[in-house]
Amino acid sequence: MKETDGLRARVALEWDLRIALRDGVHLNATLYRPKPMSSAAPAIFTLTPYIGQRYHDEAVYFAANGFPFLTIDTRGRGNSEGVFEPFIREGQDGADIVEWVASQRWCDGKVAMWGGSYGGYCQWVTAAQHPTHLATIAPFASPYIGVDFPMRNNVFTPYLVQWLTLVHGRASQETIFWNHEEFWSAQFRDFFLSGAPFEQLDTVLGGPSPIFQEWLAAAEQGAHWDRYNPTEEQYANIDIPVLTITGAYDGDQPGALFHYRRHLGARSNGRAPHHLVIGPWDHAGTRTPGLKFCGIEVGPASLIDLRRLHLEWYDWTLRGGPRPPFLEGPVVYYTMGREHWRHAQNLEAITARTDCWFLGSTGNPTDVFHSGTLSLDPLTVTGGPDHFVYDPGDVSLASLESTVDPESRADQRMVLAAVGKHLIYHSPPCGSELQISGFLRCVAWISLDRPDTDLRVSIYEVKIDGSSVLLSADWIRARYRESLRNAVLVTSTQPRRYDFNRFTFISRAVPQGSRLRLVISPINSIYSQKNHNTGCVVSEESMSDARAVTVRLFHDPEHPSALYVPIGEHGEATCATP
What we know:
The chain is 21% helix and 29% strand. It has 578 residues and is α+β, with helices and mostly antiparallel strands. It has three domains: 3-148 and 224-349, Alpha/Beta hydrolase fold, catalytic domain (Rossmann fold), CATH 3.40.50.1820; 155-218, no CATH class; 352-568, Jelly Rolls (Sandwich).
């Protein structure tokens, strides 16, 4: 029996409420009211393109605990009027909803929002409109458009067509969307093998999508994507309490933290409380944590009750209750391996020092079992350059990749199979526990003999038994090595510095005896847009355009390639688990 089954007797339902927006469009809402309800109360709503019934259980939970709760379909989805244009109107519509809700007899004038992923984004852009009666937001797993969706580091993925299928038309397409292991992996593999231009993906996998084509045409960060997100001035005006939640393996962690940093940076007076929670979770785990995800396991202390945390947050910010005990500090995060929660004053305070591991080799380290080295001693910066050749026409690993869970961080079959196709470096076994907490960085001195290519750096923990866990990864499209907003093609074979500084946050205790592994590889995946190395428009290139590129990595005294590892402070107090 679900938890909400025992709460339904305390909830009254009102169907098909029509919320009028400023342009005359009406949105569809379902209202869940506490029963009995003797007086008006603060109200909460979620705005979603995924059809409101998806959040029925959450609505029952909050209503049974005294908060009127509304699930509202975005325009053009479910029973709402209008045309669905992803991310375009949600801020303006959200502001209209806030004021409509505040005027209802069951609302006391205080309005809050709830929701994750798309629903988290809706909260940020609604708050940016500064509606009078919005009292708090609590976004989790929120993307920042142009940063981690619909591309990350200006590299698109075929997942976009899968997501656009989910929100196609007005009805729910969840069964088609979630059946990726049996359907989507095969679709992406077959398209990859066809060698067709990426811009044909929508037509091949279902039908022409003007939205998909519009996104591909805006291939780099810039004005097109800026318009989707709050401005600096709007962030500065968000003076209400904010609770941001993300996960170490949340695909939208870059976006969630981008919102977080921009808000704190704009609010220089620090008057608005902004709390951040980073759990040991994937994207789904930011709403419903689990002990197993992405092929890894975490301890039972990780299983916090996020519904209860949200309830305590709303009690605090809307009804004057006590601060949630879990939020001991402005930042709360979980250290895997140690299996406990910690808190800090800010993200920067989590890292006590940074260790520099220099890359080195005595041969060409293109095999896990014949790798280069990671050393704390700068005198090891000798030898090289190391190199691999990336041929976009090589599709030999596609069939294997289609059998690997794309979300797994523990399956290393692809790393083992790609002999000769990448560069690998290992540290010696750790002499004592290494607590990695913060953001990894990598400086790599690289030369190319083509105008462009895509390069990925992946950092793993390799355990004594030989198994591994991916800690974090970052990638660069070479033309954007200087800025994600301006393309500069490679015009020389001289080594250039590549700064991989957009790794995701990780907090993990690496035990004595484990090693670190660094892999530098091309992006030649069924789950990614393919760069054919020509320097032309990537989405228009086909396999017939492919040109092999030789990638050389330098690690000599003039070009000290290195991995920078954030080491956490051991002395933080642990947090009470809700």
